[in-house]
Amino acid sequence: MLSIHNVHKSFGDHNVLNGVSLSVKKGEIFGLLGPNGSGKTTLLNLLMEDLPYESGTIMMLDESDHSNLTIKEKIGMVPDSDERIEDLTGLELLQFIRSVRGLPKQETNRQINEWLKLFDIWEDRHRLLQHYSHGMMKKIQIIAGLLHKPEFLIIDEPTNGLDPDMINMVRHLLKTLQSRGITILLTTHYLHFAETVCDRVCFIRQGEIIQHETKVGDLLKRTHASHLNEAYTVVTDFGEERMKIDAIMEDW
Ligand SMILES: Nc1ncnc2c1ncn2[C@@H]1O[C@H](COP(=O)(O)OP(=O)(O)OP(=O)(O)O)[C@@H](O)[C@H]1O
Ligand SMILES: [Mg+2]
Q1: 41: CA distance to ligand 2 center in Å?
Q2: Is 81 touching ligand 1 by the criterion CB < 6 Å?
Q3: What is the reported pLDDT for 246?
Q4: 97, 146 contact by CB (below 8 A)
Q5: Most buried among 16, 91, 154, 205, using CB within 10 Å?
Q6: Ligand nearest to the CA of 40
Q7: Closest listed ligand to the CA of 34
């Protein structure tokens, strides 16, 4: 479904992705995990926004040119961004996306209403996006990414801003989408979510893959961890960082 090979990306002289390779198989839920600033969003943006990159190859749905409209129609994208179009309400944004994508009006409007109710923002549909909370905006972004029924869903931080009930609902939603044959690539810092939803994960740190694609169960065995949280600490080698905190606290 997705094959990334030796991709390098920098902003000015700041190297953000240093030879990243990974592949996502059709039908799986794949988690890209790693610390803040490790390059997860940048990598997804290369896929979502067709950002230029210095070298390497990216194949999505067997195509290297993913600006191709036929490919774009098969991909759903949910960004981790709080940008809002100021003058639009939640409902207007979704209807605008429906119209730009050329989706059937009556049928899609009916679905939009159902999604809004499912995500518990039906009562807020006529409010301006600029007045939405972070979680409300995330819900609208998830709905927007699903309206055209993509084959491949890319979600940057699906749980950011969501309350525990909504996180459970999104977990169930992603599993349901998977059961319908949809492939999902996500990033998350919420490792319990990753452990319960992802088939395979990989870890990135400072723009380099430090743990290649692995089944969650295999990683737990290999790192002698009972939860992904522990495995993450082992793989990202967070121990030293924690020691630094201890040192600071001595003089607190
Ligand atoms: N447009 C940009 N211009 C300059 N530097 C950027 C830009 N976008 C990202 N970066 C830098 O690239 C690095 C990776 O950022 P990125 O947002 O990809 O990290 P991330 O893994 O998604 O982090 P987080 O977990 O906090 O979301 C950071 O050092 C960031 O400052
Ligand atoms: Mg990010």
Answers
A1: 4
A2: no
A3: 78
A4: no
A5: 154
A6: 1
A7: 1
Closest by CA to 9, choosing from 17, 114, 181, is 17
CATH no., domain 2-80+149-216+223-233: 3.40.50.300
Domain limits, the chain:
2-80+149-216+223-233
Determine contact, residues 241/54, Cβ cutoff 8 Å.
no
List 7's β-bridge partners, or say none. 20
Indicate which atom in ligand 1 lies nearest the CA of residue 38: 21
**Can you tell me which atom of ligand 1 is nearest the CA of 34?**
21
- Counting ligand 1 atoms within 8 A of each CB, the residue from 41, 134, 188 with the most, and so the one to mutate, is 41
Ligand with an atom nearest the CA of residue 80: 2
In contact, 157 and 80? CB cutoff 8 Å: yes
* Ligand 1 atom nearest to 204, measured from its CA: 21
Strand order in the sheet with 152-156: 75-78, 152-156, 183-187, 29-33, 200-205, 208-215
59: Cα within 13 Å, side-chain hemisphere: 11
| Cβ of residue 126 lying under 6 Å from some atom of ligand 1 | no
Residue 29 · residue 174 · CB < 8 Å: yes
Residues of the chain with confidence (pLDDT) below 50: none
Contact 98 CB / ligand 1 (< 6 Å): no
Tell me what pLDDT residue 66 has.
67
